[in-house]
Design brief:
The chain has eleven helices and nine strands. With 313 residues, the protein is α/β, with parallel strands linked by helices. Helix 8 packs antiparallel against helix 9 (246-260). 42% of the residues are buried.
Length: 313
């Protein structure tokens, strides 16, 4: 195993997370591999979140609380990225890894030690994270999404990779654009399927469902989704989400509206090409009766396996 683990800093955009923030804070304080700095960026909380964060900052000199800045309507994507950028710019020292972390999570004490081990072991690891579980029907279940992608609630970036992709885009879909841009430039995206965290408030839960689907469709258009893949995606969502049909139709309408108006797409042509290549491969897999992926299986070969592998002894 590698020796010294890479340094890292955490940036947490928050807004009205008082019900869950203490869980996240205790998780960070208890990490076996502690961050060199944790910056909490408060985006106009009115429920005491900032005061709670400031109490932790008063107890730990490596925790800092700052304001996000300009006010805005609640949305998904851009405000989160801008708050992250503000927190990243406030770091006192440049770490090797920076983490965008939500404020409504519980992480095991070894979470960032395992993430750091992955960066140390794989020099081309650009983005690393575990699997998020959400409460559903009295059980904790994997949050819906592609296990080939690191969940946006906890994304660790090698700073060199983040610089290479030009940073995060302030738009819906930012947490897909980053990974496709990274893969297109030869960076590895490592999903540690054996490393789980608890996400107490699923993404988009503060928005009305139909507005969230509309924004998601616009975000898919911005990312550069293939029309054929978006149609399949919308049909699937129409079948599995409540109310039936409506969510999928609104998702498709948001996408179609953005494309018909020729709204700008992400400025990273490499990311768009990587995304479309994966979607073409997955479409081919669907029509051949196989759930194929262009980038291979989800990566489960992480620290939990290294501890017992022959080359670790």
């Amino acid at each position: 195993m590698p020796g010294a683990l890479p340094t890292y800093a955490v940036v947490t955009p928050v807004r009205d997370e008082a019900d869950h923030f203490a869980r996240t804070a205790e998780s960070i304080v208890s990490q076996t591999h502690r961050p060199q700095q944790w910056v909490v960026v408060d985006d106009g909380s009115t429920d005491g979140t900032r005061e709670l964060a400031e109490r932790y900052a008063a107890e730990h000199d490596w925790i800092e609380v700052i304001a996000a800045g300009a006010e805005h309507e609640r949305a998904r994507g851009a405000p989160i990225v801008r708050a992250f950028q503000r927190g990243y710019g406030a770091l006192r020292e440049q770490p090797e890894v920076v983490v965008k972390l939500d404020g409504d999570l519980f992480l095991p004490a070894h979470y960032f030690e395992w993430v750091a081990q992955t960066f140390a072991r794989d020099p081309r690891a650009g983005i690393v994270g575990g699997v998020a579980l959400i409460p559903e029907g009295g059980r904790w279940l994997p949050e819906r999404g592609n296990l080939l992608n690191v969940n946006g609630v906890a994304k660790a970036y090698r700073v060199a990779c983040l610089d290479d992709i030009g940073g995060l885009r302030p738009s819906m879909g930012w947490d897909g654009i980053d990974e496709y841009g990274a893969r297109a430039r030869g960076w590895n995206v490592r999903v540690l399927t054996e490393l789980t965290l608890l996400h107490y408030k699923p993404r988009g839960s503060k928005q009305k469902p139909l507005k969230a689907r509309w924004e998601e469709g616009r975000g898919n258009a911005y990312m550069g989704y293939l029309p054929s893949w978006l149609l399949l995606r919308a049909a699937y969502r129409a079948l599995v989400e409540k109310p039936p049909l409506v969510g999928g139709l609104v998702l498709f309408a948001g996408y179609a509206w953005a494309r018909l108006r020729r709204l700008p797409q992400v400025d990273d042509a490499h990311a768009r090409a990587e995304l479309r290549a994966e979607q073409r491969a997955r479409l081919a897999g669907v029509f051949r009766g196989r759930a194929g992926h262009a980038v291979g299986r989800a990566d489960g070969d992480g620290p939990a396996y290294w501890a017992t592998s022959p080359d670790s002894r």
